[in-house]
Amino acid sequence: MKCVLVVDDDRDYLSLFGNFLLQAGFSVQCATSGDEALSILKDSTIHLMITDLNMPKMSGIELAKKALIIMPRMPIILHSGSISPELTLLAEVVGISRVMAKPVNPGAMLEAIRNEIREV
């Protein structure tokens, strides 16, 4: 079973999204901060990380940079309520696999997750 790490400072959203992924057949780890996510990455086998962009203390971009040092081949999906061409370009430069809009379209997110995991 593939494990997805979901990172978001909104606990309610994290719970709903985590349950959605569990029902879709994934193992799920959840983190409410970048530091918590990095700790999980050091101690677990994670096949893909999904992170929010705007979080206190450490943005999704900063988290992705640090996460890719720990797990260089791990796909990362960044999701945000405010997507721009500049954000998409920055994400690509950092090594983020995809940028997706929030709120999440469940079908599109599942397709993206399956495609990213398959490519690893």
From TrEMBL:
The lineage of its organism: Bacteria, Pseudomonadati, Thermodesulfobacteriota, Desulfuromonadia, Geobacterales. InterPro entries: Bact_response_regulator, CheY-like_superfamily, Sig_transdc_resp-reg_receiver. GO terms for biological process: phosphorelay signal transduction system. Signal peptide: none annotated. Keywords: Phosphoprotein, Two-component regulatory system. It comes from Geoanaerobacter pelophilus. Residues 3-117 form the Response regulatory domain. Gene3D superfamilies: 3.40.50.2300. CDD domains: REC. This is Response regulator. The modification 4-aspartylphosphate is found at residue 52.
